[in-house]
Design brief:
single chain; 175 residues; alpha+beta; 6 strands
Length: 175
């Protein structure tokens, strides 16, 4: 059975095509709506195209939101599964990390406060987790405002997105 993380990775690979498929009709609807509104003065057709435009835009936004949420869940589940394997080890910036179990608890607990608007990712920390059940590589970036909040990017997603989400931990203060 295919893992959820692999399935979402495949979706990310074709995300550009999916967005193009939805955006092309969106642009056409917008142009036609403007044409009927300005040149033909036909309100009914203009309203129909405007509704189609809004529905298409909502589908793109909702689909992106759901994909981002599912990708975070898939990465967290993968981390939890790898941590349950034999010989579990964690490396931070290619150096062995002794608090691997505590780090997994921070990921799984998902006790993350809402991100402050205007903050951005700063210092990069590479995290590699391995066990007999597999391995996963992540890139964490410290938040510019809250130094115990990290932006997590899974490097396995290819395409236009990386499945970023937030995790709060005090374990990286020395990095």
């Amino acid at each position: 059975m295919e893992k959820m993380i692999d399935f979402i990775s495949e979706i990310y690979q074709v995300m550009g095509v999916i967005v193009a498929i939805f955006c092309f009709p969106l642009v056409i609807f917008f142009i036609i709506s403007v044409y009927f509104k300005v040149f033909r003065r036909n309100r009914k057709k203009s309203v129909n195209f405007a509704v189609a435009f809004v529905v298409n835009l909502a589908l793109i936004g909702g689909g992106s939101f759901l994909l981002k949420a599912f990708s975070a869940i898939a990465v967290i589940n993968e981390i939890d599964e790898i941590a349950s394997g034999h010989n579990f080890s964690v490396k931070i910036n290619s150096v062995d990390f002794s608090s691997g179990e505590e780090l997994v608890e921070d990921f799984v607990s998902r006790n993350v406060p809402p991100k402050v608007s205007g903050s951005h990712p700063t210092k990069k920390i590479s995290v590699e987790m391995k066990s007999s059940l597999g391995e996963i590589e992540l890139e964490l970036f410290r938040d510019s405002r809250e130094h115990n909040l990290y932006w997590v990017w899974y490097t396995g997603y290819r395409g236009t997105h990386n499945g970023s989400f937030l995790v709060q931990t005090d374990l990286f203060s020395d990095y």
